[in-house]
Design a protein that fits this description.
Length: about 200
Amino acid sequence: MSRRASRSTRPARSLRSPSAGGRDALARLRAIEERRGTPAAREAFERWEDELYDAPAAVEAAIEYLARTRAGAFSTDERWFLMALLAEISADPQLQTLSDHLADRLEDEARPAPGYGTEAFDEAQWTEESPVYAALSDAWDALRVAGEVTFLRNSGMPEMARAYLHDGPEYDRALRDGESSLFGLPRIVLDASDDPFGILLS
């Protein structure tokens, strides 16, 4: 998961949707916690992610657990990784409306592009060829950043919000390391900043 969320085709979660029955709102998140560092954590994560789009109670409970408590066995990087997903799907409704409008405008502007609607569509190339598409894309990115930073700050994660805005490499490193440790994956080392003691790059 990168700092800049991709334009998702998944419908935005509605806080007004009915919550799941009387099930413990933290049950699926705790299943991830119990399985962290193993391949089974990935399946538990996917089940939790699916639930978030249908159960507002699970979203609110997860925010409380990850942002306002020490979240049990999760490391700081793992908490940041999980909070990044919550930030992505919990956009301010007003900003989300604008974001959706811009996404529709981007689709309209992309239609004349070669390969539009297929894997042959080269978004980077079209961004260079269409100033309007480039401007709309920048505006969409800015709205996403505003929404996610506001969410993180209001959720009690000011350091995460600060890193998101001002220290992209550190934010990305935290998410990479959080994902790796959460799912028991090999640590990703891209440059010396990911390996401060020079052990893994040697």
